[in-house]
Automatic annotation (TrEMBL):
The lineage of its organism: Bacteria, Pseudomonadati, Pseudomonadota, Alphaproteobacteria, Hyphomicrobiales. It comes from Methylobacterium iners. This is Uncharacterized protein.
């Protein structure tokens, strides 16, 4: 039984690192928007403003 082929890992380490970096980047981007900048954005959708 010990001669069975080893199964590959479910998620490779490089994919885990890539996911962590993507999440960290998204969190930093969201955190960089201050409440003042968020209030400056109009509540009206862009499609309605173009008319």
């Amino acid at each position: 039984m010990s001669d069975q082929t080893k199964l590959p890992p479910i998620i490779e380490p490089w994919r885990i690192i890539a996911i962590i970096l993507a999440v960290a980047t998204a969190m930093m981007f969201v955190h960089s928007v201050t409440p003042t900048q968020a209030e400056a954005v109009s509540a009206q959708p862009a499609l309605l403003r173009a008319r």
